[in-house]
Amino acid sequence: MSDAIQQGAGVSGATTGFLKRIGARLGSMGQLSMGTFVPVLLALVAIWVYFGVTEPAFFSPRNFYFLFMQSAVVGTLAVGITVVLLIGDIDLSAAAVAGVCASLLAVMSTNMGVPAPIACLIALAGGLFLGAIQGALTAYVGIPSFVVTLAGLLGFQGLMLKILGIHGAINVRDPFIRGITTISLPPMVGWGVALACITLFAWLVYRGHQKRVQMGLELDPTMASISKVVLFALIAAGTVATLNAYRGVPLIVILLLIVTTILAWLTTSTPFGRALFAVGGNQESARRVGISVTNIRIAAFSIVGLIAAVGGIVGASRYASVSFNAFAGGPLLLEAIGAAVIGGTSLFGGRGSVWNAILGALVIGSLGNGLDLSGASAADKLMFSGAILLLAVAIDALSRNARDRK
Amino acid sequence: MQALKMKKQNTESVSAVPHLRVTGINKSFGGVEALRGVDIEVRRGEVMALVGDNGAGKSTLMKILAGAQECDEGVFLLDGQVVSIDSPQDATDLGIQIVYQDLALCENLSVSDNLFLGNEPVLGGLASILPRCIRPLDKLLMEQRAQQAIDKMKIKTLKSVRSTVGVLSGGQRQAIAIARAVGANSSVVLLDEPTAALGVVQTRQVLEVVKQLRATNHAVIYISHNLRDIFEICDRITVIRHGMNEATFVTAATNPDEIVVAMTRGIDKRSDEDV
Predict the structure, then answer these.
(1) Would you call B256 an interface residue with chain A, using a CB distance cutoff of 8 Å?
(2) What is the pLDDT of residue B155?
(3) A282 plus A389 within the same structural domain
(4) What mean pLDDT is predicted for residues B115-143?
(5) Same domain, A200 and A175
(6) In sequence order, which residues have a C-beta less than 8 Å from that of residue B71 and are 6 or more positions away?
(7) How many domains does chain A have?
(8) What confidence tens digit (pLDDT) does each residue in B174-205 have?
(9) Which of A211, A274, A287 faces B120 most closely, judged by CB atoms?
(10) Domain that includes residue B143, residue range
């Protein structure tokens, strides 16, 4: 094992230098939308290559299928948490909110016989409500979000125990809820979706280019645009090919991509998204241009609550039960925040991306998965996860320094 | 004699009715009276300097005009009509724009994002059913208009409107802050010490921009400690002392010494009558 760790250190050492150069390159390229995307992608590839070499089973389609499944809940929460991180706040209660919503869902569906779709909607509304309350406490009363959501973390864990009752766990057998994570798309449908996404992406890039030419704006380097499309196509095709070799593309992957796409659009392409970044970058400035910081904050926390509820539903579906230990206690929350930060989202606000949170979740998931395969102990896993988190933040800091020196 | 002639020229070049006039502005912070019955007015095509020692209340007055702070008492008149300014949005709607001393730009956003922050152009069409804050941004139009605004300001050193403000120099940031104020269909532009942190060349650039604002018939209120800049570009000078109007001078009929005396010691009744 110590050999493996040393090897790991060697690999990551080389990666740091490499990523630092890449970061510097990206800094000089201004702010292409793909700019922040690359470091975490490279980290992910490095981890995959390492485990691919040391653990032959790692690269099997079956393993990737379960890797995506394992990362689904963490990824969902990380995407939501990214939204509050953008405004410079933090949400420590996301996992507990997910737990409360999952418990609600389980009680309604299993014990009370509420139809599953309605139970899901109520769970989503519950998450939205809990998020909005915490946002309002932060925005109106002025309590730091760290404290509000820490109180939420404790309180909601208690609430979850209350809802679950004395057994502390409720099984979920409803086919609708289970279907969210058990259904996979037929291979041809998977390919169809991938093809549609690639075509749409290429068309968007092409149309953007055409419009830029028309309006006489500065153009992205053609090579950058082409490689962007090619990279996207490779990732999409590779993912579908791998997953099809086992059971097909899981429905949950598609659902998460849809949720993430909506949030990505909301945070980067709407006045609301600009306001999020502005509040995170310079709150006073945002206030002066007439942005309601209060409303933005409440909206951001409501979104996290809603997404946490989605995470709760996904979790209930995946584990086929809702138990206190699956959501409470910390690992889920910390992995979700870690995923967002590994994805390059700043804890100080104003910088980050929801797509990167998905990649960050995959980094954490791959690490856990690979270490499991290599038979590492829980102690090794924890220490490795800590090291990767530090490494990710270090790379981020280095590349940011490189940018700022320009 | 020459001074009188210049004064006449000045009155000819600006319209007679003040574009923005505020009277009786009072503002207290707890027990501290920051402003006590301040009156100021500015015409279109005029650059009016607002001077006063540190703590005289200039910045507070600016914030009130920009809607960033509410005054306790006071009347706002725009072209003779009573208006109220309770929020930054009110000020923006009335065409009043402020360029703050600390610029108030978001360093994590690009130049074009900053220029349109809080007032972004959005796409219409199908998206019109959505609330305005979640309609898709017209990013390309933003860029195009940002580029036009930057060209008008003659900021030649700026490479791309897509670069983040964090990487720009102080002069570039100031110019972008002014461009933002001018870009928003404003008729009144408030400048709070725009040249305080700038080098010689960049100061010149900003002064040229201010002259251009006057040429385009904006009403400009210019706060500065730099009397040389003020005497170069301003038409009138209003002196504020201890939160009250001390005096108003026509630039051509006064001299820096007189202004300094008014700012620091105040002027007694006799010299007030001379003015």
Answers:
(1) no
(2) 67
(3) yes
(4) 83
(5) no
(6) B25, B26, B27, B35, B64
(7) 2
(8) 778 888 877 767 888 888 888 887 778 778 87
(9) A274
(10) 106-182
Tens-digit pLDDT profile for residues A135-177: 999 999 989 999 999 999 999 999 999 999 878 889 998 899 9
Angle at alpha carbon of residue A309, lines to A305 and A314, rounded to 5°: 145
Q: Which of A3-7, A209-213, B253-257 has the lowest mean pLDDT?
A: A3-7
Instruction: Specify the pLDDT at position A30.
Output: 38
Do B121 and B224 sit in the same domain of this protein? Answer: no
Same domain, A81 and A94: yes
- Eight-state DSSP code of residue B250: E
Contacts with B110 from chain A: Cβ below 8 Å? 31
**CATH code of A393's domain:** 1.10.3470
Q: Do A395 and A291 belong together in one domain?
A: yes
What residue in B sits closest to A216 (Cα-Cα)?
A: B144
CB contact under 8 A, B135 and A30: no
**Is B9 a residue whose pLDDT tops 70?**
no
Please answer yes or no on whether A290 and B89 come within 8 Å at the CB atom.
yes
- Do A160 and A302 share a domain, yes or no? yes
Same domain for B129 and B79:
no
Backbone torsions φ then ψ of B23, nearest 5 degrees: -135, 150
Q: How far is residue B129 CA from its own chain's centroid?
A: 37
Among the listed residues A200, A185, A271, the one whose alpha carbon sits nearest the alpha carbon of residue A232: A200
Question: Using CA atoms, how far apart are residues A238 and A241, in angstroms rounded to an integer?
Answer: 5
Q: What value does the mean pLDDT take over residues A186-202?
A: 93
- The question of ipTM being above 0.90 is answered as no
Confidence (pTM)? 0.81
Q: Residue A261: what pLDDT?
A: 94
Residue B261: pLDDT over 70 = yes
Question: What is the secondary structure of chain B as a DSSP string?
Answer: -HHHHHHHHHHHHS-SS-SEEEEEEEEEETTEEEEEEEEEEE-TTEEEEEE--TTSSHHHHHHHHTTSS--SEEEEEETTEEE---SHHHHHHTTEEEE-TT----TTSBHHHHHHTTS--B--GGGGGS-GGGSPB-HHHHHHHHHHHHHHHT-TT---TTSBGGGS-HHHHHHHHHHHHHHTT-SEEEEESTTTT--HHHHHHHHHHHHHHHHTT-EEEEE-S-HHHHHHH-SEEEEEETTEEEEEEEGGG--HHHHHHHHHT---HHHHHH-
Query: Which residue among B125, B158, B182 closes a domain?
Result: B182
The closest CB to that of B88, out of A31, A217, A288, belongs to A288
Contact B162 A218 (CB under 8 A): yes
Tell me how far apart the alpha carbons of residues A13 and A20 are, in angstroms, rounded to a whole number: 11
Same domain for A275 and A377, yes or no, is yes
List, for residues B53-107, the tens digit of each pLDDT value: 888 888 888 888 888 888 888 888 888 888 888 887 888 888 888 887 776 788 8
SS3 A254: helix
pLDDT, tens digit, 9 for 90 and up, residues B19-68:
888 888 888 888 888 888 889 889 988 999 998 888 888 888 888 888 88
- Does A247 score more than 60 pLDDT? yes
For residues A31 and A158, membership in a common domain is answered with yes
